[in-house]
Amino acid sequence: MSRKVFDILASSAGVVVVVVLVIAGGLLTWGHSFVNNNVHNQLAQQQIYFPPKAAFDHPKAGTEITPSMIPSVSKFAGKQLLTGEQAKTYADDFIAVHLSEMPYGGVYSKASAASLANPKNTQLQGAVQTIFRGTTLRAMLLNAYAFSMIGTVMLWGAIASFIGAAAMALLVGLGFWHARRVEVDERMLAPKAVPAAS
């Protein structure tokens, strides 16, 4: 096969790869934007706010703010919950802490089973409702966090696609440049002429 023909074919295939990578990068960018906007809008509608800064001044076990919340929850003090990272922090470091202080460690299945076994215990009935609400909200917030992570992965995928497209475009350019410099009759892997012995 002619070296020129090979360079043109390989470079043309490279053009297809560039187009595919650019389309993939565009779709991943759109997906990232869609996920982040959706997570933000859904969380904004819930109007959940972190406790104000003053609440973190005197943390105490068994109160609204415990010492374990200072490193993570306090950095969002007073802010509205709008991002996946905030949703994870609120779910794991605020709600989960309060659930763990409830009967049966805040595990709904255990508390519900105990409540069914003792239906006249109104205090336990109320605790089951609180545990259910807390567990449900925590699950919804962790779903928001999971979707935000998918959006982040899409962003990194888009960046990788665009970098790959740029690198491939450079190689395609070099391939076409080389094809213009090669003689038409130059062959690939052609044996080199051996000088005649004198």
Helices and strands, in order, run as HHHH
Structural class: mainly alpha
Tally of DSSP β-strands: 0
Overall tally of structural domains = 1
Overall residue-averaged pLDDT value: 90
The CA-CA distance between the termini, in Å, is 33 Å
Rg, Cα atoms, Å: 31 Å
- Summarize the main sheet: none
Uncertain stretches: none
Give the helix tally.
4
* Shape by Cα distribution: elongated
% residues in beta strands: under 5%
- Residue share in helix: 55-70%
Protein described:
The chain is mainly alpha-helical. It has one domain (3-181). The protein is built from four helices and no strands. The protein has helices at residues 3-46, 84-100, 108-117, 122-181. Helix 1 runs antiparallel to helix 4 and helix 2 packs antiparallel against helix 4 (122-181). The longest helix has 60 residues, at 122-181. It is elongated.
SSE topology:
Elements: H1 3-46, H2 84-100, H3 108-117, H4 122-181
Keywords:
198 residues, mainly alpha, 66% helix, elongated
Outline of the structure:
The chain is mostly helical. The chain has one domain.
